[in-house]
From TrEMBL:
<comment type="similarity">
    <text>Belongs to the iron/ascorbate-dependent oxidoreductase family.</text>
</comment>
<dbReference type="InterPro" id="IPR027443">
    <property type="entry name" value="IPNS-like_sf"/>
</dbReference>
<dbReference type="InterPro" id="IPR044861">
    <property type="entry name" value="IPNS-like_FE2OG_OXY"/>
</dbReference>
<dbReference type="Pfam" id="PF03171">
    <property type="entry name" value="2OG-FeII_Oxy"/>
</dbReference>
<dbReference type="GO" id="GO:0016491">
    <property type="term" value="F:oxidoreductase activity"/>
</dbReference>
<keyword id="KW-0479">Metal-binding</keyword>
<keyword id="KW-0408">Iron</keyword>
<keyword id="KW-0560">Oxidoreductase</keyword>
<feature type="domain" description="Fe2OG dioxygenase">
    <location>
        <begin position="176"/>
        <end position="280"/>
    </location>
</feature>
<protein>
    <recommendedName>
        <fullName>Fe2OG dioxygenase domain-containing protein</fullName>
    </recommendedName>
</protein>
<dbReference type="InterPro" id="IPR050231">
    <property type="entry name" value="Iron_ascorbate_oxido_reductase"/>
</dbReference>
<dbReference type="InterPro" id="IPR005123">
    <property type="entry name" value="Oxoglu/Fe-dep_dioxygenase_dom"/>
</dbReference>
<dbReference type="GO" id="GO:0046872">
    <property type="term" value="F:metal ion binding"/>
</dbReference>
<dbReference type="Pfam" id="PF14226">
    <property type="entry name" value="DIOX_N"/>
</dbReference>
<dbReference type="InterPro" id="IPR026992">
    <property type="entry name" value="DIOX_N"/>
</dbReference>
Amino acid sequence: QILLVNMVPLIDLQSYNILVTEESVETATLKVIADQICQAFQEVGFVYLKNHGIPRELITNALSTSKTFFDQPREKKEQYALQPGHFHGWIAFEAERVNHDRPVFDAREGFNMRLLDRKDQTLPEKLPPEVDSAWKQLHNSCFQLGLHVLDLLSIGLGKNRDYLRQCHKKIGLGDNVTTLRANYYPPLKEIKPEQARCGEHSDYGTLTFLFQDEVSGLQAKVQDGDYVPVHPIEDTIVMNLGDMMQRWSADRLKATKHRVMASPTDVHQLRQSIAFFVVPDNDALISCTDGSNKYPDIDFGNYIKSSFNANFQDDTEN
């Protein structure tokens, strides 16, 4: 029996968290958790993960150092600005709009970090010194957890345990844009008409981990079409699937739309979160695992570039 928290399943990863040696757990043992996760992603599309093995101090440190960076004057942050066509760098307030149907850009800032070399922690561009160690440590823990969850999804889909790992071999090695993103929602006097903190969207890749502070705002779209709150729960990670996982599973598993909204009272509060987006390798060919060809094969590298770059375009100027 899966525990539900406001319609969102709570999954216990104790038997296969990042502290567990992969070889020490039989596939048959993992099938119980794998089936729970896949059932949740068929019905709801979001889960809470508990007993994941990532230390609370690591998460707290990443959030606090993020605040230190974002609290700096704009001119200090601009030296780290994300450049067109790139995936690494600072994204200014109201510079991005993930729901292209909204007329106003999102009321948040962000910083995307990706590694080019896991071994020596090389980055594509520079990283602010105040966040360097904390973000890299969290990235590495999320990477390990991501591999474990890929195993569980593979088993749940009736494939070999390492099936999805084969398309994620280059995470942190350059030819893969898996990204750790710090989100910063500053206190506002008011929100603009039709403006979201982060507009309605589904994620592009395979799966996403989200670490929230204590301020609510995240909402997920459930089967009946309503958005329900995904409140922060201490010592849990929120996880959802991305568009590529829905394509791989031929719609068996759902990439659920979600958003961050601010109520009239919440708009005055600072909110922070850190997301870890696990995506396939750039050269991965995404094909339906059941052989149905429900979706045509696509090349992930080309897909992600066009999708990500579109978030910074102002359609009203055309």
